[in-house]
Design brief:
The complex is a heterodimer of chains A (154) and B (386). Chain A is α+β, with helices and mostly antiparallel strands. Chain A is 45% helix and 12% strand. Chain A has a four-stranded mixed β-sheet with strand order 2-1-3-4, covered by helices on one side. In chain A, strand 3 and strand 4 form a beta hairpin. Classes of the chains: A alpha+beta (154), B alpha/beta (386).
Chain lengths: 154, 386
């Protein structure tokens, strides 16, 4: 859990208070806190003067606007056909072993969440994954270990 | 049958002076621009293939003073990654294409809808946009572009779902008609074009429509950027003249053991080896937004089909029943046949369901699930059953 504080106000000042400002505001919150709490969505609803159900309805439609608690670094491993053919399972296994969590879970220190995702547009450099917005491609188990280590020491 | 040799082309990534082309376009009337695009024979490069010139013509004809040009950069089709590369390498040509389209249709505002998966590109794209804005202001254009980001929803590549998303709503496709040319984003007349289409339009204004029309075939003019992946020694992005057969493509990109090519991504068609020679890549054969995935004989086509169906089952927006329930049932159905819980003849029932989805689904997603489903089941039936 996090406190939204003035973030919703700041984002609304920046993006406006129209319905079309809703996506950038929600994206801004996720940018900072990695997921949306009920409290955050209610705050956004108040700020835009729409019902909280509308905010939740929109947020829950989009995979990247998580309404479940996520870690500081959200790992999304591509599971679509080319990545799947080129060793996605091995990459997932490496991540699960290293982070000691299963797909869908978050580490107890709230640093990493491990998820699968649909095609992220790196099929020619499969397998690929995103950590927050950063893509990592042509993955091998060794490479993945190095990448995660670098995030652990960030 | 007329088909062309496989020929590499360099139009999309060719370095040009955007300023020169935009100065030239600035002196042209709306009618002149539209006529050149019509003469070139350019069809939309996102996959659906609507003639770009007509789209601009219809939008230009609308009386509403508030109009939009939207660039669809929500490239989500499995196996497609050319739009990311185009934006990364030559964003100024995407913006240039938008400015030209804006002059043609009479829009003052442009919106690029970029998929969330490509957000890492945004800082660079915005810096390049700043430079672009300064340049067109000097020429005299009254036109601004802004970005909207997606958040991981394949369906938002469907034009009306994309508009909903820009408006801050769930990305659920609208009923058509009305079409975007009369009621698009914010319910205003909108021309929505794929990234590659906009760049191509700019190159047509630069080189003239004759060059472009001289490439390709009658139904598929010009060249196209292909995203090549799967079992190939040379995965990547290639701009090729349209009109080649799948065989010619496989000769160039295959690994010597290609058994099938999925043309057009999960919503496209699977072409088996025995049909390589007779199938043309283009609107007269198998149309594609550029996704070309090669599978060699070590791959199980059941796994391929299962992967696609899982994809659709997750990405269906759930709004209309044929697509929501259809995707679930197709997935469950092939699993049951594979496990032997249902007889192989059950596949015939599933094919009928896919046909129903094609007729009854509200948008392109549900309508095209049957493309991959039927072409894989019909050509690789034994792999699905055993």
């Amino acid at each position: 859990m996090y406190q939204v504080g003035d973030l919703v106000k700041e984002l609304s000042d920046k993006h406006g208070r129209d319905r079309s400002s809703l996506m950038p505001i929600l994206q801004g919150i996720v940018d900072k806190h990695n997921y949306l709490t009920d409290e955050a969505m209610v705050e956004v609803a108040k700020e835009l003067d729409i019902s909280a159900a509308e905010v939740y309805g929109t947020a829950s439609f989009y995979t990247f606007l998580d309404t479940r608690e996520r870690g500081k670094y959200v790992i999304r491993v591509c599971k679509t056909i080319t990545c799947s053919m080129k060793g996605k399972n091995e990459i997932l296994q490496t991540l699960e072993d290293m982070l000691k969590i299963k797909v869908g879970e978050t580490t107890s220190d709230k640093m990493f969440s491990l998820l699968e995702t649909n095609c992220i547009g790196w099929c020619h450099k499969a397998p690929a994954m995103l950590i927050n917005e950063m893509p990592y491609t042509e993955l091998t188990s060794e490479k993945v270990v190095e990448i995660i280590k670098s995030y652990m020491t960030k | 049958m007329i088909n062309k040799e496989l020929t590499k082309v360099d139009l999309i990534f060719e370095k040009i002076s955007a300023e020169e082309v935009l100065r030239k376009a600035y002196e042209m009337t709306s009618e002149e621009i539209i006529q050149q695009i019509l003469d070139s024979g350019l069809k939309g490069r996102g996959g659906a293939g609507f003639p770009t010139g007509l789209k601009w013509k219809y939008t230009a004809a609308e009386k509403d003073p508030e109009k939009y040009i939207v660039c669809n950069a929500d490239e989500g089709e499995p196996g497609t990654f050319k739009d990311r590369e185009i934006l990364d390498m030559v964003s100024y040509k995407v913006y240039g294409g938008m400015a030209i389209a804006a002059s043609a249709i009479g829009a003052k505002e442009g919106i690029v809808y970029l998929r969330g998966e490509y957000r890492f590109l945004l800082p660079k794209l915005l810096a390049e946009l700043d430079t672009f804005h300064r340049m067109i202001k000097e020429i005299g254009y009254d036109f601004r572009i802004r970005y909207c980001l997606g958040s991981g929803a394949y369906i938002c590549g469907e034009e009306s779902a994309l508009f909903e998303s820009i408006q801050g709503l769930r990305g659920e496709p609208r009923n058509k008609p009305p079409y975007p040319t009369s009621s698009g984003v914010f319910y205003k007349p909108t021309s929505i074009n794929n990234v590659e289409t906009l760049v191509t339009a700019m190159m047509i204004i630069d080189h003239g429509p004759e060059l472009y029309a001289s490439l390709g075939t009658k139904d598929s003019r010009g060249s196209k950027v292909f995203s090549v992946s799967g079992d190939t020694p040379t995965p990547g992005i290639f701009e090729l003249e349209l009109g080649m057969t799948v065989q010619q493509f496989v000769n160039e990109f295959g690994d010597g053991d290609t058994k099938a090519v999925q043309v057009g991504g999960a919503s496209g068609f699977c072409v088996p080896r025995k049909k390589f020679a007779e199938t043309i890549i283009g609107f007269e054969g198998v149309p594609t937004g550029g996704s070309m995935k090669l599978f060699n004989s070590s791959r199980s086509m059941y796994n391929v089909l299962h992967n696609y169906l899982e994809f659709f089952e997750e990405e269906s927006c759930g709004q209309c029943t044929p697509c929501r329930v259809g995707c679930q049932q197709l997935l469950k159905g092939v699993e049951k046949v594979k496990k032997g819980e249902m007889k192989s003849t059950y596949l015939n029932e599933l094919v009928k369901l896919a046909d129903t989805m094609k007729i009854a689904s509200k948008c392109g997603l549900g309508q095209s699930v049957g493309n991959a489903f039927k072409s894989i089941v019909e050509n690789f039936r034994e792999e699905i059953i055993y």
